Amino acid sequence: MQTMYFGGNILTMEEDSGLVEAVLVENGRIQKTGTRQEVEEATEASEVEKVDLKGQTLMPSFIDAHSHITYVGPVSQMADLSGCMDFDEVVETLHQYITTNNIEAGAAVIGFGYDHTLLKEEDHPRKEVLNRLPENPVFVFHASAHMGCANDFLLEKAGIDADTEDVEGGAIGRVEASCEPDGFLEETSLTLIQPYLFAHMDPDYMKLLEEGQRVYIKNGITTAQDGATPLESVELCRAFAEQNRFHIDVIAYPMADEEPEKIFEAYPRHANTYHRRFKLGGYKMFLDGTPQGKTAWLTEPYEGETEYRGNGWYKDEQVKRFTDAAVQNGVQLLAHCNGDAASDQLLQSYRDSVREAGESEDDLRPVMIHAQTVRDDQLESMKQIGMIPSMFIDHTYYWGDVHLNNLGEKRGTRISPARSAIDKGLMVNFHQDSPVIEPDMFQTIWSAVNRMTRNGTRVGTEQRVSVYEALQAVTINAAFQYKEEVDKGSISEGKYADFIIVDRHPLDIDPSDLREIQVVETIKEGRTIYREGEFF
Predict the structure, then answer these.
(1) Full-prediction pTM beyond 0.85?
(2) Numbers of helices and strands, H then E, in the chain
(3) Integer Cα distance of 173 and 155 in angstroms
(4) Beta bridge partners of 524
(5) Could you please report the per-residue DSSP string of 420-453?
(6) Which residues pair with 332 in a beta bridge?
(7) What is the dihedral of CA 522, 523, 529, 534, to 10 degrees?
(8) Edge-to-edge strand ranges of the sheet holding 170-174
(9) Using CA atoms, how far apart are residues 496 and 532, in angstroms rounded to an integer?
(10) φ and ψ of 307, to 5 deg
(11) pLDDT tens for residues 34-70?
C-alpha cells in the first residue's frame, strides 16, 4: 500500500521545502516528493491511500536529543507539586495525594516538581514542613530532579543522622549550628534515600513505560532517549521491546561509572543498533548540578558569593577514566555540564583521551548535555573535537529570572548561548530533559526564538535564533547527534516516513504564537500512532 499526502503545507526541512506539494510513502519510507502531478505519476500500487492535509502542515517528526523516558511514567504517578506556590500548598497537595490514592500509614510518599524559586518562602520544604505528614516516609523532588527534601520518618528509615557524612559531589542540609540533617539532600546525596524509597515500591514498570511513551508520541516525538540508564531500566526496555511495545525508537545511555561496557556485552543485539526499536547508544556521565539550584560548577562565584562556585561530581582522574573508556571502546559519550568549570573538565579530559588514543576513524560525536554557561572559547574547543552542544534552551523561560539573580546580568543573559554556537558552525540541538519538563517541542522552539522569562523579561536577545534554526535543532540536528541523519530528520526521498501533522505552519505565524501550535497526528514509518487524542 502506498500513501500520498497532499493538500496542505509540506515543510521538508530541506532546501526544496517551497517546491514540495505532495509526498509518497511506501513500506515505511519516503518514495517520492515533488509536485502533486509528479507524485501521482510515481504511484505504482493498485490502491493508493490519499491523505488530504486540508490546509494543515506536514513536517518531520521531532527527535528528542536528551531525556529520561523510563522516568516519565513513574513521575506521572507521583504527587504533582509543580503548581505549588507555598509550603502550605505542598503539604495540602501531598495530603490529597495520600487520600486519593488510599496510601496506608508507613508507605512511602513521593512528590515531584516543586520549585523553591517560585515558592513564597523562597526556600526548600525541609523536614519541619514535611513532618506535618508524620505517618509516612515522605520525599519531594525539586523540579530539576537534582535535589529534594525528606521528613524525619524517611531520614530515620534511610539511616541518615548527624553522623552521616556528605557523599562526594553532593550535600546533606544541616540544622543551623549542628550536624543534625534538616531534610534537604542535593546531587549525589540523593543516593542515600533512593534504596529505601524504591525498595518499598512495587509499580508496574511496563505499564508506566507505556504511559511515558505516550507522552512523547502526543508531542510528536518518534525518537526518544533514556539518559543515565541503570541496568534494571535497560532490562525493562529490552523486555518492553521483546513484546513489540515500542512504537517509537528509544536510545539508552548507561552511566559511565557503572561499567557500561558490561551492559553492552550483555545485550549485544541492542549494542549501537536498533532491535525492535531499542538500542544502546553510548555512555552518560554527570559532572555537576544545576544553575537554578546553585549546584552547577562555575569558574567564577555565584552572584552575591565571595567563594562559592558549586561543586564537581568527580575528580579529574575519575573523569579521565570515563572519557578514556568511551574513546577506547569507540562509543558516544554524553556528559551533563551546566557550569563552565564542568565544561572545562570535560573538554580537557576528552581532548587528552582522543590525543592518547591516536588516529581513529571512529566518528564518536560526543555531546555536552545542557551547556548552560558554556563560554566562547569552549565552543571553539567543542568545534575542534566534534563535540555537540545539546541545550536545555527552555531554561530561558522557566528559570531565566533565577539565572539573572544567581549568575548576574552578564552570565545570566548568556544562558544557553545557541546563537553563538550556531555562528561557530556547531550542530546545536535542543532538549527538555523530561521529566524535568514535558517534552513539548513547540514550547522549546518558542523559548529559543523569543528568549522570554516567566516574568516577561527578554533574556539575552542577542542569543535568539530563527524559527527555522530552532526547527533544525529538534529535527535534522538531533538526528545528526544519533548518526541517523541519513534516515531521519527531514522529508527526503529514501528516509523514514517519520512525520507529524500540525495545525499551523510554524514559519507563517507570529513567533510569539509558536508554543500554541498543536500536534494533530504523529506518524512513525508511515503508520499513524496518534491522532487528535487517540493512540494507535
Answers:
(1) yes
(2) 18, 25
(3) 12
(4) 527
(5) HHHHTT---EE--TTTTS---HHHHHHHHHH-B-
(6) 282
(7) 30
(8) 79-80, 109-114, 138-142, 147-150, 181-187, 170-174
(9) 22
(10) -130, -35
(11) 999 999 999 986 789 999 999 999 999 999 999 999 9
